[in-house]
Amino acid sequence: MVLASFLLSSALSRGGSAAPDATYRSTVEEVRLTFVVTDEHNRTFAALKARDFAVIDDELVIRNFRSFTRLDESKLDITVLVDSSESVVSRFRQEIGDVLRLISESKSIAEDNVSVLSFGGTRSTIICAANCRQFSPAEQLFALSPQGATPLFDAVVFAAKQVSERRDPLVRPVIILFSDGVDTVSRNSAADAVQAAIESNAQIYAVDLNKPGFLSKGSSTLQGMADATGGRYFTIGEGAVKLLGDLLEDLHAAYVVTYQLPSRDIGFHPVRILPTRNLNLRFRCRHGYYQRMVN
What we know:
The protein is of the alpha/beta class.
Protein backbone atom coordinates (compact mmCIF):
# COMPACT_ATOMS: atom_id res chain seq x y z
CA MET A 1 0.00 0.00 0.00
CA VAL A 2 1.36 3.39 -0.97
CA LEU A 3 0.86 6.07 1.67
CA ALA A 4 -0.20 8.68 -0.86
CA SER A 5 -3.21 6.55 -1.82
CA PHE A 6 -4.22 6.14 1.82
CA LEU A 7 -3.85 9.85 2.53
CA LEU A 8 -5.88 10.75 -0.55
CA SER A 9 -8.74 8.35 0.17
CA SER A 10 -8.83 9.31 3.86
CA ALA A 11 -8.86 13.03 3.18
CA LEU A 12 -11.52 12.78 0.47
CA SER A 13 -13.70 10.65 2.70
CA ARG A 14 -13.76 13.55 5.18
CA GLY A 15 -14.25 16.17 2.52
CA GLY A 16 -10.73 17.49 2.89
CA SER A 17 -7.73 17.95 0.66
CA ALA A 18 -5.12 15.27 0.10
CA ALA A 19 -2.28 17.75 0.40
CA PRO A 20 -1.42 19.56 3.65
CA ASP A 21 -1.92 23.32 3.69
CA ALA A 22 1.56 24.05 5.02
CA THR A 23 4.72 24.16 2.95
CA TYR A 24 7.82 22.41 4.21
CA ARG A 25 11.54 22.86 3.64
CA SER A 26 14.22 20.53 4.98
CA THR A 27 17.58 21.18 6.55
CA VAL A 28 18.21 17.45 7.08
CA GLU A 29 21.00 16.07 4.91
CA GLU A 30 20.14 12.38 5.23
CA VAL A 31 17.13 10.11 5.47
CA ARG A 32 16.97 7.53 8.28
CA LEU A 33 14.60 4.59 7.94
CA THR A 34 13.91 1.95 10.57
CA PHE A 35 12.35 -1.23 9.20
CA VAL A 36 11.54 -4.87 9.89
CA VAL A 37 11.90 -7.62 7.27
CA THR A 38 10.09 -10.97 7.19
CA ASP A 39 10.33 -14.06 4.98
CA GLU A 40 7.61 -15.96 3.14
CA HIS A 41 6.53 -17.58 6.43
CA ASN A 42 6.16 -14.16 8.12
CA ARG A 43 9.19 -14.85 10.32
CA THR A 44 11.67 -12.08 11.03
CA PHE A 45 14.71 -12.29 8.76
CA ALA A 46 17.97 -11.92 10.67
CA ALA A 47 20.52 -12.33 7.89
CA LEU A 48 19.80 -9.28 5.74
CA LYS A 49 22.69 -7.70 3.82
CA ALA A 50 22.81 -4.26 2.22
CA ARG A 51 22.83 -5.85 -1.22
CA ASP A 52 19.52 -7.62 -0.48
CA PHE A 53 17.33 -4.52 -0.79
CA ALA A 54 16.88 -1.13 -2.40
CA VAL A 55 15.05 1.97 -1.19
CA ILE A 56 12.67 3.68 -3.61
CA ASP A 57 12.50 7.36 -2.66
CA ASP A 58 10.16 9.38 -4.89
CA GLU A 59 10.69 6.65 -7.53
CA LEU A 60 14.47 7.16 -7.35
CA VAL A 61 16.29 3.88 -6.63
CA ILE A 62 18.74 4.18 -3.72
CA ARG A 63 21.44 1.51 -3.38
CA ASN A 64 24.31 3.63 -2.08
CA PHE A 65 23.66 3.78 1.68
CA ARG A 66 25.55 5.88 4.18
CA SER A 67 25.00 3.22 6.83
CA PHE A 68 23.14 -0.04 7.36
CA THR A 69 23.01 -1.88 10.67
CA ARG A 70 20.85 -3.70 13.15
CA LEU A 71 18.99 -1.28 15.35
CA ASP A 72 20.78 -0.84 18.68
CA GLU A 73 17.99 1.12 20.36
CA SER A 74 16.70 -0.75 23.41
CA LYS A 75 14.22 1.68 24.93
CA LEU A 76 10.59 2.33 24.09
CA ASP A 77 8.43 5.39 24.62
CA ILE A 78 4.91 3.91 24.63
CA THR A 79 1.82 6.12 24.41
CA VAL A 80 -1.46 4.24 24.83
CA LEU A 81 -4.54 5.93 23.35
CA VAL A 82 -7.80 4.75 24.93
CA ASP A 83 -11.08 5.30 23.09
CA SER A 84 -13.66 6.39 25.70
CA SER A 85 -16.36 7.56 23.28
CA GLU A 86 -19.91 6.23 23.10
CA SER A 87 -19.15 4.11 20.02
CA VAL A 88 -17.14 1.61 22.12
CA VAL A 89 -19.56 1.21 25.06
CA SER A 90 -20.04 -2.53 24.51
CA ARG A 91 -16.28 -3.24 24.42
CA PHE A 92 -15.10 -0.64 26.93
CA ARG A 93 -14.46 -2.96 29.87
CA GLN A 94 -12.50 -5.36 27.66
CA GLU A 95 -10.54 -2.42 26.27
CA ILE A 96 -9.60 -1.17 29.74
CA GLY A 97 -8.67 -4.68 30.84
CA ASP A 98 -6.30 -5.03 27.89
CA VAL A 99 -4.76 -1.60 28.51
CA LEU A 100 -4.04 -2.46 32.15
CA ARG A 101 -2.68 -5.88 31.17
CA LEU A 102 -0.41 -4.21 28.63
CA ILE A 103 0.96 -1.82 31.27
CA SER A 104 1.45 -4.66 33.74
CA GLU A 105 3.28 -6.83 31.19
CA SER A 106 5.51 -3.92 30.16
CA LYS A 107 6.98 -3.76 33.67
CA SER A 108 9.30 -6.61 32.67
CA ILE A 109 11.01 -4.23 30.21
CA ALA A 110 13.61 -1.98 31.80
CA GLU A 111 13.69 1.78 31.33
CA ASP A 112 10.64 2.18 29.11
CA ASN A 113 8.28 5.14 29.46
CA VAL A 114 4.55 4.46 29.32
CA SER A 115 1.89 7.16 28.96
CA VAL A 116 -1.89 6.75 28.78
CA LEU A 117 -4.29 9.20 27.11
CA SER A 118 -8.04 8.88 26.66
CA PHE A 119 -10.23 10.50 24.03
CA GLY A 120 -13.98 11.05 23.91
CA GLY A 121 -16.37 13.95 23.47
CA THR A 122 -14.33 16.76 21.96
CA ARG A 123 -10.91 16.37 23.55
CA SER A 124 -8.07 14.15 24.68
CA THR A 125 -7.13 13.74 28.34
CA ILE A 126 -3.77 12.77 29.81
CA ILE A 127 -4.28 9.99 32.35
CA CYS A 128 -0.59 9.66 33.18
CA ALA A 129 2.50 10.87 31.32
CA ALA A 130 5.64 8.70 31.02
CA ASN A 131 5.12 7.36 34.55
CA CYS A 132 2.22 4.94 34.18
CA ARG A 133 4.30 1.99 35.34
CA GLN A 134 4.92 3.68 38.69
CA PHE A 135 1.53 5.39 38.91
CA SER A 136 -1.17 2.79 38.17
CA PRO A 137 -3.96 4.37 36.07
CA ALA A 138 -6.53 1.65 36.92
CA GLU A 139 -8.74 3.86 39.09
CA GLN A 140 -8.73 6.71 36.58
CA LEU A 141 -9.48 4.40 33.64
CA PHE A 142 -12.33 2.56 35.33
CA ALA A 143 -13.76 5.94 36.39
CA LEU A 144 -14.15 6.88 32.72
CA SER A 145 -17.67 6.74 31.33
CA PRO A 146 -17.72 5.98 27.61
CA GLN A 147 -19.81 8.72 26.07
CA GLY A 148 -19.78 11.52 23.56
CA ALA A 149 -18.36 11.86 20.08
CA THR A 150 -15.10 10.31 18.84
CA PRO A 151 -12.17 12.70 18.13
CA LEU A 152 -9.92 9.88 16.90
CA PHE A 153 -7.74 11.85 14.48
CA ASP A 154 -7.37 14.78 16.89
CA ALA A 155 -6.25 12.30 19.56
CA VAL A 156 -3.53 10.83 17.32
CA VAL A 157 -2.27 14.34 16.49
CA PHE A 158 -2.28 15.22 20.20
CA ALA A 159 -0.38 12.02 21.09
CA ALA A 160 2.17 12.66 18.34
CA LYS A 161 2.83 16.13 19.74
CA GLN A 162 3.38 14.65 23.20
CA VAL A 163 5.82 12.14 21.69
CA SER A 164 7.69 14.90 19.85
CA GLU A 165 8.16 16.88 23.07
CA ARG A 166 9.90 13.84 24.63
CA ARG A 167 11.92 12.99 21.53
CA ASP A 168 15.16 11.16 22.23
CA PRO A 169 17.28 9.68 19.40
CA LEU A 170 18.02 6.64 21.60
CA VAL A 171 14.36 5.88 22.29
CA ARG A 172 11.85 4.38 19.86
CA PRO A 173 8.38 5.99 20.08
CA VAL A 174 5.25 3.85 19.69
CA ILE A 175 1.57 4.84 19.79
CA ILE A 176 -0.72 1.96 20.76
CA LEU A 177 -4.19 2.94 19.60
CA PHE A 178 -7.28 1.20 21.00
CA SER A 179 -10.24 2.22 18.82
CA ASP A 180 -12.97 1.09 16.45
CA GLY A 181 -11.52 3.43 13.83
CA VAL A 182 -14.58 5.68 13.74
CA ASP A 183 -14.14 9.46 13.90
CA THR A 184 -17.14 11.75 14.29
CA VAL A 185 -15.87 15.15 15.43
CA SER A 186 -12.16 15.76 14.76
CA ARG A 187 -10.90 19.00 13.27
CA ASN A 188 -7.98 17.03 11.85
CA SER A 189 -8.28 14.45 9.07
CA ALA A 190 -6.87 10.94 8.81
CA ALA A 191 -4.15 12.44 6.61
CA ASP A 192 -3.26 14.93 9.34
CA ALA A 193 -3.08 12.14 11.93
CA VAL A 194 -0.74 10.04 9.80
CA GLN A 195 1.41 13.07 8.99
CA ALA A 196 1.75 13.94 12.70
CA ALA A 197 2.73 10.37 13.57
CA ILE A 198 5.32 10.21 10.79
CA GLU A 199 6.82 13.56 11.75
CA SER A 200 7.15 12.39 15.37
CA ASN A 201 8.80 9.14 14.15
CA ALA A 202 6.13 7.18 16.04
CA GLN A 203 4.79 3.88 14.77
CA ILE A 204 1.10 3.18 15.31
CA TYR A 205 0.16 -0.25 16.68
CA ALA A 206 -3.61 -0.29 16.23
CA VAL A 207 -5.96 -2.51 18.24
CA ASP A 208 -9.31 -2.84 16.47
CA LEU A 209 -12.26 -2.85 18.90
CA ASN A 210 -14.67 -3.99 16.22
CA LYS A 211 -16.00 -7.53 16.21
CA PRO A 212 -13.24 -9.86 14.88
CA GLY A 213 -13.93 -11.16 11.40
CA PHE A 214 -15.96 -8.12 10.40
CA LEU A 215 -13.86 -5.66 8.40
CA SER A 216 -15.57 -2.30 8.74
CA LYS A 217 -14.59 1.10 7.38
CA GLY A 218 -13.11 1.85 10.79
CA SER A 219 -11.03 -1.34 10.61
CA SER A 220 -9.65 -0.24 7.24
CA THR A 221 -8.76 3.17 8.71
CA LEU A 222 -6.83 1.54 11.55
CA GLN A 223 -5.00 -0.80 9.18
CA GLY A 224 -4.09 2.12 6.94
CA MET A 225 -2.69 4.18 9.83
CA ALA A 226 -0.64 1.24 11.10
CA ASP A 227 0.73 0.40 7.64
CA ALA A 228 1.60 4.01 6.81
CA THR A 229 3.71 4.43 9.96
CA GLY A 230 5.41 1.02 9.86
CA GLY A 231 3.41 -0.37 12.78
CA ARG A 232 1.03 -3.31 13.07
CA TYR A 233 -2.71 -3.99 13.19
CA PHE A 234 -4.38 -6.28 15.77
CA THR A 235 -7.91 -7.33 16.60
CA ILE A 236 -9.19 -7.01 20.16
CA GLY A 237 -9.39 -10.81 20.35
CA GLU A 238 -5.62 -11.18 19.96
CA GLY A 239 -5.01 -9.51 23.30
CA ALA A 240 -2.39 -7.34 24.96
CA VAL A 241 0.15 -10.11 25.52
CA LYS A 242 0.46 -10.83 21.78
CA LEU A 243 0.66 -7.13 21.00
CA LEU A 244 3.50 -6.57 23.44
CA GLY A 245 5.29 -9.69 22.25
CA ASP A 246 5.12 -8.59 18.62
CA LEU A 247 6.20 -5.08 19.57
CA LEU A 248 9.29 -6.42 21.35
CA GLU A 249 10.03 -8.73 18.44
CA ASP A 250 9.98 -5.72 16.13
CA LEU A 251 12.25 -3.80 18.49
CA HIS A 252 14.89 -6.51 18.57
CA ALA A 253 14.64 -7.51 14.90
CA ALA A 254 14.71 -4.04 13.35
CA TYR A 255 17.30 -2.62 10.97
CA VAL A 256 18.17 1.00 10.28
CA VAL A 257 19.43 2.40 6.99
CA THR A 258 20.56 5.95 6.21
CA TYR A 259 21.21 7.58 2.85
CA GLN A 260 21.86 11.03 1.46
CA LEU A 261 18.81 13.18 0.97
CA PRO A 262 18.09 12.67 -2.75
CA SER A 263 16.01 15.80 -3.25
CA ARG A 264 15.38 19.11 -1.51
CA ASP A 265 11.84 19.36 -2.86
CA ILE A 266 9.37 20.49 -0.25
CA GLY A 267 6.44 18.34 0.84
CA PHE A 268 5.90 14.63 1.29
CA HIS A 269 8.35 12.06 -0.09
CA PRO A 270 6.95 8.51 -0.46
CA VAL A 271 9.35 5.69 0.38
CA ARG A 272 9.32 1.93 -0.24
CA ILE A 273 11.85 -0.81 0.43
CA LEU A 274 11.99 -3.66 -2.10
CA PRO A 275 13.99 -6.91 -2.22
CA THR A 276 16.68 -7.23 -4.88
CA ARG A 277 17.50 -10.94 -4.67
CA ASN A 278 15.05 -12.89 -2.51
CA LEU A 279 11.65 -11.77 -3.77
CA ASN A 280 9.89 -13.49 -0.86
CA LEU A 281 11.15 -10.90 1.60
CA ARG A 282 8.68 -8.30 2.85
CA PHE A 283 9.68 -4.96 4.37
CA ARG A 284 7.69 -2.90 6.87
CA CYS A 285 8.57 0.75 7.51
CA ARG A 286 6.93 4.17 7.44
CA HIS A 287 5.77 5.04 3.96
CA GLY A 288 7.52 8.35 3.63
CA TYR A 289 8.87 11.48 5.28
CA TYR A 290 8.18 15.21 5.26
CA GLN A 291 10.56 18.04 4.69
CA ARG A 292 9.56 20.69 7.16
CA MET A 293 9.73 24.45 6.82
CA VAL A 294 12.26 26.24 9.02
CA ASN A 295 10.81 29.36 10.61
